[in-house]
Amino acid sequence: MTGNREYKSDVFSMLMEDPENALSLYNAMNGSDYTDPELVEICTLDRGISLTVHNDASFVLDMNLSIYEHQSTICPNMPVRSLIYFTIILEGMLKDRNLYGRKLVKIPTPRFAVFYNGEEEQPEIYELRLSDAFVHPMEQPEIELICTVYNINCGKNRKLLEKCRFLREYMMFVDYVREYHRLAGFEELEHSIEQAIDRCIREDILREFLMKHRSEVVKVVKLDYTFDRQLMLEREDSREEGREEGRAEGRAEGREEGRAEGREEGREEGRAEGRAEGSDEMTELAIHLIRAGRAEDIERCRDATYRNKLLEEFHLRNK
């Protein structure tokens, strides 16, 4: 199966469509020394239950199924998402196999990893578990899925980046975009991306990839930044709203600070769930706008009234 999505979620997923890059990252992750890219079978998910159900990189090598994701925002739901990706990929692999027979059907051994490069401070390596999402916790879950999260920001997981050139150069490109965008006062994003691309080409950083895919890289990086900015604004609004609610409740009820913090945690969990749903909705809307040749409308989606109008136009409201 060859990944051939019309919509690429980010530059990482574009890079991982190259078997040589997949092989390089696999070797770096597993301490192996495979040299033949033809051993890699790309099987990145290119269909799903909605436009937002797709994964960044999946491939089989030596009967190991690697399911890799890139995240620029924190997402505790990666084990659930990875379970969906795994089952859909597995369904395609086993469509011609007899699962009702007496012979045991072997499947590739799955490995799940998330590569995080957002700007919020996170540990160098940590695990997310499917069982953390269970309404009723179990000491010995009857099903478990573990995603290992690797922070690939500057100064983190240096050995991994040293072993994998394209991943190291990808982060150099990301850092250049951030640097130029910051110097521009967080304005003129497209120009900052173009500057970063020019610099990388001069310095032989992802040179061939950026020369070949320049226009698409500009598009997806701009889209990523738009989403991240939208999420940041929503988080700031939620924090301020929560602070005001906490003060009002504290004054009215005269409760101690600890109880107010408890209420705040509950409200924040609810708002986090709402933001996650809104993010998926915004992703689908952005995809529709790009396909309709209206990418410039994405920035206007900060206006809630205009965003709701577009959601109704594309029949995405209350799906």
Quaternary: single chain
Helical content stands at 40-55%
Number of helices: 9
Q: How many runs of DSSP E, i.e. beta strands?
A: 6
What proportion strand?
5-15%
Main sheet attributes: strand count, strand direction, barrel closure: 6 strands, mixed
Q: What is the N-to-C order of secondary-structure elements (H for helix, E for strand)?
A: HHEEEHEEEHHHHHH
| End-to-end distance | 30 Å
Coarse structural class: alpha/beta
Topology at a glance:
Elements: H1 11-15, H2 19-30, E1 41-42, E2 57-61, E3 64-71, H3 78-93, E4 109-116, E5 125-129, E6 146-151, H4 158-163, H5 165-183, H6 189-202, H7 207-253, H8 257-291, H9 304-313
Parallel strand pairs: 3-4, 4-6
Antiparallel strand pairs: 1-2, 2-3, 5-6
Helix pairs in contact: 5-6, 6-7, 7-8
Please describe what this structure looks like:
This protein has 319 residues and is an alpha/beta fold. It has a domain at 1-96 and 103-134 and 141-163. The chain contains nine helices and six strands, in the order ααβββαβββαααααα. It has helices at residues 11-15, 19-30, 78-93, 158-163, 165-183, 189-202, 207-253, 257-291, 304-313, and strands spanning 41-42, 57-61, 64-71, 109-116, 125-129, 146-151. A six-stranded mixed beta sheet has the order 1-2-3-4-6-5, with helices on both faces. Helix 3 links the parallel strand 3 (64-71) and strand 4. Helix 7 packs antiparallel against helix 8 (257-291). The chain is globular, with a radius of gyration of 22 Å. The chain starts with 10 loop residues before the first helix and ends in a 6-residue tail after the last helix. Mean pLDDT is 83; it is low at 1-8 and 47-53.
